[in-house]
Amino acid sequence: MGLSNKELPKLGLLYMDYVLRFFDHSNFKGWPNKIETVTYHWKNDKERFIQEVKDKKIDVLIGNIPATAYETFREIARALPHVRFIPSLDTQFSNKSKENVTRFAWKYDLPIPKTYIYYNHKKADEALKKAKYPKIIKKSYGPSNYGGYFVHKVDSYEEAKKLLEEKRYHPVYVQDFVPMEADIRVMLIGHKPVCAFWRRAPEGEWLTNTSQGGSMDYNDVPKSVLDLAVKVSKAAKAEYWACDVAYGKDGKVRILECATAFAAFPYIRDWIGEYLMWLLSEGRFRKPHIPMFNWEELGKISPDLLRTMRHITFGEFHASYDGAYFGKKKKMYGEKEVYLHELDKKYKISAVKPRYSEEWPSEKWNYQDKLSLKPLRSLKKDSNVEVPKPTKDESQESFRDEVKITQEELSDFLTSVKGIGKKKVKKIVEHFGDVDEVIGVLHQNPNMLTEIKGITEKLVKKVKKAWKKLLK
Ligand SMILES: Nc1ncnc2c1ncn2[C@@H]1O[C@H](COP(=O)(O)OP(=O)(O)O)[C@@H](O)[C@H]1O
Ligand SMILES: [Mg+2]
User: What atom of ligand 1 comes closest to residue 178's alpha carbon?
Assistant: First the structure.
């Protein structure tokens, strides 16, 4: 049963310069044929990239597309109609921006905090004048792997006005403030939850941010949360998926964020690889068995060790064999007590089918470019901005733009700017602590570079321009 080596589709891994790789060959253990890789180099690389995929005769291109490349890849996918993108560009629609997450939720009637999106700043101002507070204001699009760094609570119109004047977010993205117990990240493969954990805010705070002192744990994630995550994954037709669900003090569940790009332990990426091998081989490879609530047990292992554990497999429950952990164990779930293995029948791994039409064509849905503002006057200098340290573990807060640059790449980039040499690069890295911090500064507040002796505002302008160009 299943496809022979010759019949199997040709796989390619989609890589991007400067972006953390979600998969590599080791996640596809046992795949008998060569797996190609294709790397997107940004900047005018579209045609070359398309040609490379054609030359390598790739049938299935696997990988996450970061927000900043999303629109280009919609064009690339159109030029490669015979290539199956996994996840599809439509599934990755939510990767691009919070606005897209919201539009996706609106379409499928999925619960989210009440949200208002304004491209017209006058309208936004009028609405904020009349609004009830507190409200949450967020940056919709752009690098945000700093969990909550671009999320603000405002308690009055005056505060909202001041914030927007300072930040100049476009579009203006406003949500009702939802008092919550915690938020819960759920990861799914083939619509089945495979890992879930709570993130709780520090005492007295509202932001459930583990990188700023919040905590996480894997225990007793409620049924309503898992059910919502499954519903969302199905609506997105996602081969793999992560969902942040707000668990409100009112007991209601609402989606905060969802995407295909998220931080996950290597063993989870192995499971995705196994799932895809099953999906693409017409049953030649085994469908992985991933028991419900495995995370409560795996979560007891130290994260440092978990990070090194690979290809975790579980035996399935059989009635005749009563020694199996997941066969004997009971759990309170929803209203009643159930055997864990019974939950595996309810939450099945399902086969996600290829899609042949476009659900979210850019001509219609790319508001962001259609309604973009004229270039803004340069922002006021504000060197008091605190740049938090990005977290790199699986509790990482955000999905968008996990741009990761090595010291060498950073050095290459900075020295490409006239006026910056190796010595200055060294000073910059030393000043901010490490490469990630410098990237954070480049993303969020490049004006801080003037804190370094010998770096003038004029030089910063050049850096900004080069950085923008690099990510285009
Ligand atoms: N509408 C809201 N009401 C209350 N808290 C919120 C709301 N939206 C976000 N938060 C809090 O802010 C955090 C970050 O918001 P999120 O939308 O996930 O942005 P980020 O991209 O920074 O992760 C959430 O994890 C949650 O704790
Ligand atoms: Mg988040």
Answer: 3
